[in-house]
Write a structure and sequence with these properties.
CATH architecture: 3-Layer(aba) Sandwich
Helix content: 40-55%
Number of strands: 5
Strand content: 15-25%
Oligomer: single chain
Shape: globular
CATH class: Alpha Beta
Distance between the termini: 50 Å
Number of helices: 5
Order of helices and strands: EEHEHEHEHH
Length: about 150
């Protein structure tokens, strides 16, 4: 159970935070889906794959200091949001990258621009491919792609 009696911590507006460090892949989340990334990182770490995880906390203003660091350090960025992909956090990351001439691969996970049936939250997260399993699969796929490219070199 969460310790609800602990004192509040000040959150600086427009600043994200690093949840865990990693190699090659950075997962950027906003909101509740950060819990999916935490679970995915645990599973992936047990497989020897170590993605970084950042909680962006804000889309406007977006944490440009954090994004400069992420874009310089990681070959692949996966954005995960419980909202529309068009105009969402992933789009804001892509706009930042375009404005600063970064060419990192970005994979966006979230609600696609199509009609989504009604259902329970867990069903819809899986249907839209941004639950824990979807994150694991995308990270595994990028790890396999990187390994294949290294072996081919």
């Amino acid at each position: 159970m969460t310790d609800w009696k602990r004192p509040f911590k000040t959150i600086e507006v427009g600043r994200g935070r690093k949840i865990c460090d990693g190699e090659d892949v950075a997962i950027l989340t906003i909101g509740n889906v950060g819990n999916f990334a935490v679970e995915a990182c645990k599973e992936l770490n047990s497989e020897g794959i170590h993605p970084a995880h950042y909680d962006m906390r804000f889309v406007k203003p977006i944490d440009e200091v954090l994004l400069h660091d992420v874009c310089k350090r990681y070959k692949t960025i996966i954005t995960v949001e419980d909202g529309c992909l068009q105009g969402g956090m992933g789009s804001a990351v892509l706009e930042f990258m375009a404005d600063h001439n970064y060419h990192t691969q970005v994979i966006r996970l979230g609600i696609p621009d199509e009609f989504i049936e009604h259902g329970e939250q867990a069903e819809l997260w899986a249907l839209c491919n941004y639950d824990t399993n979807a994150i694991i699969q995308v990270v595994q796929k990028t790890a396999v792609t990187r390994t294949t490219k290294i072996m081919a070199s």
